[in-house]
Model the fold of this input.
Amino acid sequence: MDIAFKIVNSVRGRSLQRRLFNLTLDEGAAEIILHTDVRWLSRHKFLQGFHDLLNEINFLKEREDDQAELEDEEWLCDLAFLADFTGELSDMNLELQGKNKCISKMMSTVSSHKSKFELMMTDLANNTFDHFPNMQDHLGQYPNFVFQNEKYVAEICSVIQEFENRFCDFQKIGTVVEYLSYPFKVDVDIKETAAALSKNYSLNKPSLENEILTLKNDIFLKTHAEQESFWKLVPRDKFLNLRRCSEAVHSCFGSTYLCESAFSHLKMTKSTQCSNMTDEHLQDSLRLALTQHSPNFKKLVDEMQAQTSH
Done:
């Protein structure tokens, strides 16, 4: 990344270098982009763009600039690997963003990408590149390059280990979320599930066991198990403890996305052009920016009188 930053800055930071580089681009081709560590989500776009424009960037060698890495086959292979792998990480981060993301969906996203990383590690160990198109292109351009898969397998392994450390809390509620997502599994362990629910939410274990058994044999609720609003159909008076567990899981914030988006809206609303805005108006503007409720404007307009004298 540091070397790529240096090369891009040498092109974009000097007007002559930038004009000469633009002359090498085909008509309609994307220009090389800048990158900062603050915008870490765009790292894949930066690396992929840099990799796609390697042939055009090679004009630096003609100008006798000290960019020996552009001729280093091992460094170019590292670049191809990083462009491919950061693409997978960016896809996961984008899936974790957005509104209406309950913790069960986010846990599924993290688990699926972790499994995909394990598959990618296995493919590299077997020298197959189905999930590494950039590395496949690199090895096609340099057929005599000695590929050392151990280095890249170790990198992916370290990322998987980092997942284990960062998402260790998922293991504490994994059984709970899995049960509440579909409570009619045939092989559900009632004792284990009730113990996990009781431990996480401080509820009576025998009562939970009875409710789990009763729910499992409820024919009406079983026919509506596929509905997204299933737990709204479960009667509270009959399944009080399970309803509490369901509400606790579905109201759990899986990320800080909503908080960060609120800060972004606040920054855009409270600008220098709106410096005279009061705190009350600012709260109302922020509420309008964050709410998902759509008012019935036709009804509101019909209730208003055109002339106050009438």
About this structure: Residues 170-250 form one domain. The chain is about 65% helix and 0% strand. The longest helix spans residues 73-96. The mean pLDDT is 83.
